[in-house]
Amino acid sequence: MRASLIQIAVDPDESVEARRVRAASLVVAQRVADLVILPELWPVGAFAYTAFAAEAEPLEGPTHEAMAKAAAEAGVWLHAGSFVERAEDGTLYNTSLVFSPEGERVAAYRKIHRFGFDQGEAVMMGAGEELVTVALPDTTLGLATCYDLRFPEQFRGLVDAGAETLVVAAGWPERRRSHWTLLAQARAVENQAYVLAVGTAGTHGDVQQAGHSIVVDPWGEVLGQAGADEEVLTVELDADKVRATREQFPALKDRRLGLTSPLRGRPH
Ligand SMILES: NC(=O)CCC(=O)C(=O)O
């Protein structure tokens, strides 16, 4: 299975509409891939908080339309990254979309862990409540978005739901690039799964982006890593490698679930 990660540059001097057209043509150019992935909030920029409300779209808005068309034109499975969704009740979400090679939407994932602590996304957006997996012909994807990468329990939940390929759409800052690489490898090793993590290039909301999209195999080996600028990273994945790794080194079977805390029940 060939996967292409589109590390698109997100800069404020390009309009959202112009970037949408450009993203669609980058997807269409990946006809030789089976799976194409875009990063987090590429229409507006993950750190462009002040533009979130103005650029919010309904689920089936312009980004949905452009990406459905691009997936069908390229004939690829498309993880279209995320966009700012305005739900019917007015709540904003950081929502990722996945399309089939026929251009049908097969999944929508609302980011579970919102970034920003007491500002930005954390206060402006609602939190997703559902783990999302997507069964492809060769593998099952588990979906995550950026800050989710720091929460191993989400990934373990995805693996328990059948995920073999963990996709992380991100807008990760250069300042914490070392965490990005380390966490992507950790999620791959502990879950014995592929990790396909795609970030943005450029600078938005005054935050320089790390780029350095990365693909890690189920043994923790880095199969490819992009540089800092706009780039398409293409890698070959072998879906059998996940099953083989889990059989040959069956650490996932040694989990000890349901242990009680030694402090539980003690008077305090
Ligand atoms: N958009 C994000 O979720 C950023 C996450 C981040 O910067 C970090 O976890 O560090």
UniProtKB/TrEMBL annotation:
SUPFAM superfamilies referenced in this protein's UniProt entry, alphabetically: Carbon-nitrogen hydrolase (SSF56317)
One GO molecular-function entry: hydrolase activity
Chain coiled-coil ranges: none
Alphabetized UniProt keyword annotations: Hydrolase
CDD domains noted in UniProt: nitrilase_5
Name listed for the protein in its UniProt record: Hydrolase
Family: Belongs to the carbon-nitrogen hydrolase superfamily. NIT1/NIT2 family.
Domain CN hydrolase: 1-239
Pfam families: CN_hydrolase (PF00795)
InterPro entries, sorted: C-N_Hydrolase, C-N_Hydrolase_sf, UPF0012_CS
